[in-house]
Sequence to fold (123 residues):
Amino acid sequence: MDDRAIYRGRAAVLADLTVRRLASAEVVSVLDEVCSERRWWLEQWAEGADFVPGLIAQDVQERMADEIGRTDPSGLWPVCLRCRSGPVHTLHIAPDLGGPDPVWVCEESGDVVAPLGALTPDA
Fold:
């Protein structure tokens, strides 16, 4: 099996976690678990390789919210830093199935913030 899609997804998500200072050992372990699970999925549907990086991002986002908590700010990843007013809210991956070419989108405004793997410390 070709693991390049898994590695691309892992690298992109790790870059986004790192730039937001959330790449703790606990969170990287979550990322590695998600990658392992998505490897099985990719074995079942090799044609879905373009979707894997976005799906990994979505899976990590959901796990962080479930395991850390949706009320704990560190469980909300990635938080939208563009919207300066209103409640704290997250970005989500679009398109919904994770690809191809996944991007982070503000859940409030609907604006594209960055491609997966290209978040910045202030956006």
User: Anything to note?
Assistant: Strands lie at 91-94, 103-106, 112-115.
